[in-house]
Design a protein that fits this description.
This protein is of the alpha+beta class. The chain is built from eleven helices and twelve strands. A hairpin with a 5-residue loop joins strand 3 and strand 4. Helix 6 packs across helix 7.
């Protein structure tokens, strides 16, 4: 018998097919992400664990709802029986993705009340300006003025941007600086010592691959700051450059001092093999721990030429590639992203301090 509801049934069938297809794709990509060191394409799958988790969790919710909403008891029991394998399958992959993500949401990673009481926070703000395209100087200057950080680092900091920000007067309170060539800069209210430009990837001394290394005193203890912007792994050769940077930092860890702060657009997520190796072999930890995953790129609207605040969809697609890594004795009192400053990256702001001498 002809049913007037056939378009609805057809649409539901198409939706179910597409959802199953997307879910299976995220499961395959989850397995690929766990083998991210096998090659360039494998490495690209490591960055989207949050998205895989979100899609799989949504699918699990829909499966459970579909079973629960079955009208007749015998249909409900039958639906649960048929869906048991799907539920188990989804739970398995959800756990694979949740395992590396969950520690970021555990408050135990934050400093204790006693540590907060006896330390004086220093605020650091990181920007990737998207310098060749972004021209929103006023928003950047306003963000710096509003946050009033003690230390500011900037990457993709072109000569045009340097001139424009100097004209705003925002740097009047930052007498200590390393800026100019290298498309990277460090401005500080605190004295900078032994400041220098370096290149982590041998033979790749191009302007946008420079690092800054400098020392500051935080709570009367010396801290080395490494500002970095390794190559984006959009090509296999760029991934090689990025790996060289991470390997160099690991090899030089002992020469960078006990207290180390690595900040910048590191062009990798916390789940990449390079990032995992870096934190495992250097004793550094991700400042996001205890504060949740904070995606910073891509804010797609600037890439498309639209100057507008990112939308919810933009944030759901974004991944955390702007990082602040800290050594054992450095405390992280707060961490957040934003505001939107016209770049394809959101700025990152952290407040840090030092553990008291034992």
């Amino acid at each position: 018998m002809f049913s007037i509801f056939w378009p609805v049934k057809l649409a539901f069938g198409v939706f179910k097919f597409l959802l199953n297809l997307v879910v299976l794709a995220t499961c395959a990509l989850t397995i690929a992400a766990m083998m991210g060191d096998k090659g360039w394409l494998w490495s690209l799958t490591t960055h989207f664990r949050m998205q895989y988790l979100g899609i799989q969790a949504l699918a699990l919710l829909l499966v459970v709802l579909a079973c629960s909403l079955s009208r007749k008891d015998n249909q409900t029991a039958s639906a649960w029986t048929e869906s048991r394998l799907s539920i188990g399958f989804l739970c398995f992959f959800i756990m694979l993705n949740l395992t590396p993500i969950l520690p970021y949401y555990l408050p135990s990673s934050r400093p204790s009340v006693a540590e907060l009481k006896f330390s004086h926070p220093v605020k650091l703000m990181h920007f990737n300006l998207f310098g060749q395209i972004n021209r929103d100087t006023a928003s950047v200057a306003q963000a710096i003025t509003a946050a009033d950080p003690d230390i500011v680092d900037l990457v993709e900091y072109t000569p045009a941007w340097q001139h424009a920000l100097e004209q705003t007067g925002v740097w009047r309170r930052y007498p200590y600086r390393v800026a100019g060539k290298g498309h990277i800069a460090l401005y500080s209210k605190l004295p900078l010592q032994n400041a220098r430009l370096t290149y982590a990837a041998p033979g790749k001394q191009v302007a946008n691959q420079a690092n800054i290394i400098a020392q500051v005193s935080i709570n009367r203890q010396p801290v080395t700051i490494l500002v970095a912007h390794p190559a984006s792994p959009i090509l296999p050769s760029h991934l090689t450059w990025l790996k060289q940077s991470f390997q160099t930092w690991q090899q030089e860890r002992s020469r960078l001092g006990q207290n180390l702060l690595v900040v910048g657009d590191l062009n990798t997520s916390p789940w990449s093999k390079e990032f995992e190796s870096m934190t495992r072999n250097t004793g550094l930890r991700d400042s996001q721990l205890g504060y949740g995953i904070q995606p910073s790129w891509p804010m797609l609207l600037p890439i498309l030429g639209i100057r507008s605040t990112p939308t919810l969809m933009t944030n759901l697609l974004a991944i955390p590639i702007d990082h602040v890594l800290v050594s054992e004795r450095i405390l992280v009192f707060s961490r957040k992203t934003g505001p939107f400053v016209g770049s394809d990256h959101l700025p990152v702001t952290v407040e840090i301090g030092m553990k008291a001498d034992s």
